[in-house]
Every structure is written in C-alpha cells, then in structure tokens.
Design a protein that fits this description.
- By secondary structure, the protein is an alpha/beta fold.
- The protein is built from nine helices and seven strands.
- A seven-stranded parallel sheet has the order 3-2-1-4-5-6-7, sandwiched between helices.
- The chain starts with 8 loop residues before the first strand and ends in a 7-residue tail after the last strand.
C-alpha cells in the first residue's frame, strides 16, 4: 500500500515543539517531504536531521511568524527547495499568560493574537498562493478545544483560537472550489513538555486532575495522536472534508 502522503511537500510550523516534532515524524512516515519550521533554530535543525537520519526527506527553514515578510519568505523557501507546496500544518503557537482579563495588558493580548491567530491568517494567505500554482492542496490549522469553550484567565488565547476556527472556515469557503481544503484541529490537553512544565506551577497544577477527568477517556493526548489527525486531514483520504473543526480531545468537548 502506498503511503498516504507519498511525495507530497508539507510545511509544518512550530515543528520543533512537542506536537510539531511528533507531527513531522508522522507525516514523514506517511511519505511526505517535510519542511520543518520554527523560531528555535537549533531544535528545528535537530528535528530535520533526525528525519533525514531515519531515511526521510526533510529540510529546516527558520522563521519568526510575527512578521508577514518572514512568513512569505518561509513559503518561498519551501517552494524553492522542493518546487511546490502540497500541504501545511499551521501548528505554531504560544500559550496564554494565565492572567485575569482585567489584569491582561494590551501587549500580552497582542502577543498571543499575533502568533496564534494573525500568523495563521498570514500562513494561509501565502500557502494558498503557492498551492494554486500547482493545482491545489490541503491545510490543517491548530486551534484548540478553547476555540469552542472558555476557561478563566485565558481571554487572549480563547479569543485567538475561536478566531482560528473562523479564519479556517472563511478560507475553506474562499478556496474549496479552487482545489484547496482548509480544516482545523481542536486538541484537548496534550502531554507536551509545555504541559509538563505548567503542571509544576501551582496556578496550573491544582487543576490538572480535574482537566484529566474532563477528557472522557480519562487521559491526555499523546503528541503523535494530534499528528495522526493532521495526516488524515492533509491526505486524499479526507478529500471531501473542508471547513471543519475536528476535536481530537478524548471526548472533552462532549462532556
């Protein structure tokens, strides 16, 4: 059986993070040629090198997604290296500041909106331009269960992730008839190094067990499980799936 992404060029932003690294591996194992991107140069290069050591085709392109010029340059570099762009997993993001809304500064608000929402818009903008040149493609955007619900002390993150779902649907409407599918993934809590770190902070750790039990499967996701969802959405197996917000949360949103 042919790998489901055989030969496809897929860009992964935030590729050096917990979900990003696992997703790059999943997508590469599915036959994709991977453009790993991250602001963390050493870690990103290590991910790409690890993929190549495993017999996969991968390259690393550093990018600071806070500027449109960097995002445009990232897509251009991917196309220059592989000659095309078939898929993208817009996974990069930053966490909330764990601050009540009335204490949240404009700078804190702007920083999260810029990376978690505006950068997704800009990635889609430049990715679809590249995909249209070669007949289409597929994009998966990282949203969150908090794109559907809210928790305290996360106004900037909740707003950004609600926005990701909105821009995903808007892009699906704009490009569905032109051969580009755009969907969003809504994880629950994922066992990443970030979550492990937050679990040691008193302001977060007191909520960990309650959060775990909210997931109907009574565990958190493994990073690879999010990558598997991205693989499906980017593959031809999801050829009639467009504009959805896919929960990958062990049933948390059903609770």
């Amino acid at each position: 059986m042919r790998p489901v992404l055989e030969g496809k060029v897929v860009l992964v932003t935030g590729g050096a993070g917990g979900i990003g690294t696992a997703s790059c591996t999943v997508l590469a194992e599915a036959g994709a040629r991977i453009v790993v991107s991250d602001i963390a140069v050493e870690a990103g290069e290590a991910v790409a090198e690890g993929l190549r050591a495993g017999g996969h085709d991968a390259t690393f392109v550093p990018a600071d997604l806070s500027t449109e010029a960097a995002i445009e340059g990232l897509v251009a570099a991917a196309v220059a290296h592989y000659g095309r762009l078939d898929g993208a997993f817009n996974n990069a993001g930053m966490e909330q500041h764990n601050t009540p809304l009335e204490e949240l500064t404009l700078a804190q608000w702007d920083s999260v909106i810029r990376i978690d929402l505006t950068a997704v818009f800009l990635c889609i903008k430049h990715q679809v331009r590249a995909m249209l040149l070669t007949g289409g493609g597929a994009i998966a955007n990282m949203a969150s269960g908090l794109g559907q619900i809210a928790i305290p002390n996360a106004a900037e993150y909740v707003a950004a992730k609600h926005g990701v779902i909105g821009v995903t649907r808007a892009a699906a409407a704009d490009f569905g008839a032109r051969g580009i599918r755009v969907n969003a993934i809504l994880p629950g809590i994922v066992r990443t190094p970030m979550i492990e770190r937050l679990s040691s902070e008193p302001s977060f750790s007191q909520h960990v067990e309650k959060l775990r039990m909210r997931h109907l499967m009574q565990r958190f996701a493994e990073p690879r499980e999010i990558g598997e969802a991205a693989k499906w959405l980017l593959s031809d197996g999801a050829s009639f799936v467009n504009g959805i917000a896919l929960p990958v949360d062990g049933g948390a949103l059903a609770n």
